[in-house]
Specification:
44% of the residues lie in helices and 16% in strands. The radius of gyration is 21 Å and the shape is globular. It has 15 helices and 13 strands. Bound molecules: pyridoxal-5'-phosphate. Pyridoxal-5'-phosphate (PLP) is lined by residues 105-107, 131, 133, 177, 181, 206, 208-209, 237, 239, 247.
């Protein structure tokens, strides 16, 4: 019998939508090694270069000495160890919220939290460019889901009016991201807060690509816009600028207590390894320190350099300040995006091609990410190479 998956995979290949794993035989950093060759790495979300930082190594190693490798059980059974609680206290303090709860990943945080907040007959208004974890959490909740055109406040306002009219007495949850993962732009957070207050909605904000990058001490967009207290549910992940892994939710004591009782991805999953929580705590401590702030400012120097040098597609405002460390170069066609990524790789640059379904069909792109650990020279070299290939 012909393998069922063979045909499906063939169909994916024909549309240039097949995906493959690539073995990296080194730590994450500004350079990585693939099949014995060094590549300059513009593919990682390790914005501050913490994924291979000695402070995090040491924190993880001493937690292994003290607590071992595995957590043994879910948090509610016997898996809550001191490093988990220390990390949660530090996250809440850093984010300026009453409490925090950690999950094994950002994906798990979204999947567990959204269904705990809303259910059948409630309404979710989700930005069109939200990450898959938020989409999946929203679907899983069973709430009425409306997708709002990206960052369009007028449309959101009319959806809120509709929700309040048609679903009286039910909860309305707005979900969006601080920095959109594949486009690098920001949500209009102050205006969103105004709308959520006017319509008595809840606001959930995924700060995955904003923490460590935006606001003093890298506290994220809610802090930068001074609206932290008005954002009901602040989600994030330790897997990007914080260099480790694990998702979190920050918010009120009652929210966190509710999630401990209702978030299924928290309740029914073994706790993250205590060493990972300890490394996360070291990352939060670093961000809150003067040295961490220096590293974040260095990241912004690199972002500005990339913004200055990167050839643009045309219509974008060249002078506008870059909103984040993510630079999408839209190619359009899926195959063309793959070919461009392969050509860059042959010249020593690792830049991922992002295709459907991660982004909409026909909007395939190269997603370049800058980190504080990139020297100026590789950034210049990448931009020159892209420019040369354009001519
Ligand atoms: C915006 C956004 N939210 C959530 C996640 C999920 O986080 P994690 O990788 O920790 O599961 C990601 C990254 O993958 C992301 O880009």
């Amino acid at each position: 019998m012909r393998d069922f998956f063979t045909e499906e995979l063939e169909a994916l290949r024909k549309r240039a939508l097949d995906r493959h794993l690539r073995e990296i035989s080194s730590a994450q950093g500004p350079e990585v090694v693939i099949a014995g060759r060094h590549f300059i790495n513009f593919s990682s979300n390790d914005y501050l270069g913490l994924a291979n930082d000695l402070r995090l190594h040491e924190a993880a190693a001493s937690a292994i000495d003290e607590f071992g490798v595995g957590a043994g059980a879910s948090r509610l059974i016997s898996g809550t160890q001191s490093p988990h609680l220390r990390l949660e206290r530090a996250l809440a303090k850093w984010k300026g919220t009453e409490a925090a709860l950690c999950f094994s990943s950002g994906y798990a945080a979204a999947l567990g939290t959204i269904p705990a907040l809303v259910t059948k007959n409630d309404v979710i208004l989700l930005d069109k460019l939200c990450h898959a974890s938020l989409i999946d959490g929203a679907r899983l909740s069973g709430a009425v889901l409306r997708v709002c055109p990206h960052n369009q406040l007028r449309k959101l306002e009319s959806l809120l009016e509709w929700a309040r009219r048609k679903h009286q007495g039910n909860r309305v949850l707005i979900i969006t991201e601080s920095v959109f993962s594949m486009d690098g732009d920001r949500a209009p957070l102050r205006e969103l807060v105004e709308l959520k207050k006017r319509f008595r909605a809840l606001l959930m904000l995924d700060e995955a690509h904003a923490i460590g990058v935006i606001a003093p001490k890298g506290r994220g967009l809610a802090a930068a816009e001074n609206v932290s207290e008005q954002v009901d549910v602040q989600m994030g992940t330790l897997s990007k600028a914080l260099g480790t892994s694990g998702g979190y939710i920050c918010g009120s004591h009652t929210l966190i207590e509710w999630l401990i009782n209702r978030a299924r991805s928290f309740i029914y999953s073994t706790a993250p390894p205590p060493a990972i929580a300890a490394a996360g705590l070291a990352a939060v401590d670093f961000l809150a320190s003067p040295e961490g702030e220096k590293r974040r400012l260095l990241l912004w120097e690199r972002i500005r350099l990339m913004q200055q040098l990167l050839p643009r597609a045309g219509s974008e405002a060249e002078d506008a300040a870059a909103p984040s460390a993510i630079f999408p170069l839209i190619v359009g066609d899926e195959k063309a995006a793959l070919d461009t990524a392969a050509a860059l790789q042959s010249e020593g640059f690792l830049v991922p091609a992002i295709r459907y379904p991660t982004v909409a069909k026909g909007t395939a792109r190269l997603r370049i990410t800058v980190t504080a650990t990139h020297e100026a020279a590789p950034i210049e070299a990448l931009c020159e190479t892209i420019e040369r290939r354009r001519r």
